[in-house]
Amino acid sequence: DGGITQSPKYLFRKEGQNVTLSCEQNLNHDAMYWYRQDPGQGLRLIYYSQIVNDFQKGDIAEGYSVSREKKESFPLTVTSAQKNPTAFYLCASRTKAGTRHNEQFFGPGTRLTVL
Amino acid sequence: KQEVTQIPAALSVPEGENLVLNCSFTDSAIYNLQWFRQDPGKGLTSLLLIQSSQREQTSGRLNASLDKSSGRSTLYIAASQPGDSATYLCAVHPSGSARQLTFGSGTQLTVLP
Question: What pLDDT, on the 0 to 100 scale, is given for residue A15?
Answer without folding.
Answer: 85
